[in-house]
Amino acid sequence: MKRIVLAxxxxxxxxxxxxxxxxxxxxxxxxxxFDGIFGQYDRHAMQRxxxxxxxxxxxxxALKYVAFxxxxxxGFNEEEIKAIAAEYQIADGPDEAGDMFTRPGRPSDQFPxxxxxxxxxxxxxxxALPPNLSLITKARAHGPDYVYALLTGYRDPPADVVLGEGMxxxxxxxxxxxxxxxxxxxxxxxxxxxTPATVEQMSRDVVQFLAWSAxxxxxxxxxxGIKSMLFLALMTGLLYVSKRRxxxxxx
Amino acid sequence: MSNSYRGxxxxxxxxxxxxxxxxLDHQMRDYPAPRNLNYWWNYGSLALVALVLQIVTGIxxxxxxxxxxxxxxxxxxxxxRNVNYGWLLRYLHSNGAALxxxxxxxHIFRGLYYGSYxxxxxxxxxxxxxxxLAMMATAFMGYVxxxxxxxFWAATVITNLFSAIPLLGQEIVAWLWxxxxxxxxxxxxxxxxxxxxxxxxxxxxxxxLWALRTVKSNNPLGIDVRGPQDTxxxxxxxxxxxxxxxxxxxxVLAGFVFYAPNYMGHPDNYIPANPMVTxxxxxxEWYFLPFYAILRAIPDKLGGVIAMAASLxxxxxxxxxxxxxxxxxxFRPIYKVIFxxxxxxxxxxxxxxxxxxxxxxxxxxxxxxxxxFFHFLILTPVVGKIERPxxxxxxxxxxxxxxxxx
Lengths: 251, 406
Description:
The complex is a heterodimer of chains A (about 250) and B (about 400).
Chain A: H1 2-14, H2 16-21, H3 43-55, H4 78-86, E1 89-92, E2 101-104, H5 118-124, H6 143-152, E3 168-169, E4 177-178, H7 199-214, H8 218-248
Antiparallel strand pairs in A: 1-2, 3-4
Helix pairs in contact in A: 3-7, 6-7
Chain B: H1 9-17, H2 20-29, E1 32-34, H3 43-62, H4 72-81, H5 86-113, H6 122-144, H7 149-161, H8 169-177, H9 184-215, E2 231-233, H10 234-259, H11 289-297, H12 301-321, H13 333-354, H14 360-386, H15 396-401
Antiparallel strand pairs in B: 1-2
């Protein structure tokens, strides 16, 4: 029985994009600073979003592939990054005696996962597996909108809906059932810049952070894109002119 | 031979010892191409540009990718995050593959419209079909390499097709997998083959060009070249035209790479492969969708595989199915109509392939599949017999120099 529940939860989680595309979930299109040709990440929102991840999401969700040094993208300087890294204990070793040990994190370390393995994660989460978040906005259709809708889409279930054991009612989740309890409550974090920590604000900010963690090269890409497109347009124009000149000899 | 070549002393010195300049002259400057080729003839050279782009970006990706099921997904993320311009290499490679297919499909439909498969170009056409088949194998195996959910399940679905082969099916599938399920050995051998096949394609392209140089290019009028007045030297006329086309192609590619790099991909492939969880809808890349629709149109597994294979293999016998001696659809009033119906049929098949195989889509898919084969096996031979082609022009030069649009 437990296996079936696990499989169902996993299927619900992983089946999300396709189901969303077929209109099962409630997904409003949001406007993001990183949309569009000139879109860039919002540094302040990312720093707030990082705080939300660190203080809330990180309890259960890993942020694989992201190193502390990458936080420079958010606008942190070297000293700040060293300080952030040092807050974490990183498993290292073996040392000269052959023993594993833990030490404070360094900028080159990646964010440590909250659980040693998937089994440990499931055991602590009522059988559900909290997915790694560093690719979540790319691993779901309309990822940023989806994550925002998920975080702000918790409701009391309608009278005719019977929820599975330990499940919560969600407007965004396909099938409307989600194992994760509502992660954000009003005022849950205290933003250093004084921004009021509403659920919507925290959700928007953490989406900025997660979008960056999924696609850290977005700004580099779009900047290179403008230069490349201009160069190619100019080159193509010149190639067209030379083609015209060469062919004009024929007519 | 010696000193016959014009140019600087260095050029002549080299040419006397290895006549590469004479060779290039023969291939480019002396090669007569019909003077009336339109922009649909750009897609052949574009396909070569795309192939070279895939090989170059692929070689650099291979320096960082790890062909092991335990590390493949992570190594792709390593490329995306830590390798300098790794994101550019990968997005060029993945979007380049899709545009390579787009270019080749246009190239094929150009051949269908202007009758480029007809005598004396049958072998040229055959080599082209073999190239497409090799491209499909390469693209499929390349799609498996990131080892995401779609990679894994695409590999599972496609390799399982071979189990439809009577008697030996299961043995063949186990042999392809290197085990009893898609797994590490499958990924590693796909990587090896994915690196090999592009060079096989390159060899096939050489044969394709060799055959082309022998029978010469077809042209929009579909009539034979009668003399020098019908042709222009390939260089500089078509080289300059091809370069312009290449510029446009690179603009489109850059548009995808820089502004919508995952548009043609699937979000599920950013989830690591998990044999325990099947995605709700397993969908191939868009360039396989028409064939996927044909596969699913037949209720029987073996029948579906046969139909899918036949949809490509029928092209081999097309030169004999088409009973008309007139090449270009410009002079074939009925064929021109059924050509557009075929194109619409294939596009719609692609759409059906993207939809879940249920309800009305099953019936639409079957009707479209039936029409696909009806087009090649019935319509094409019959139309060739009953159609009265419009009179062909005397020569290419007569049309071009009269000021009429070529």
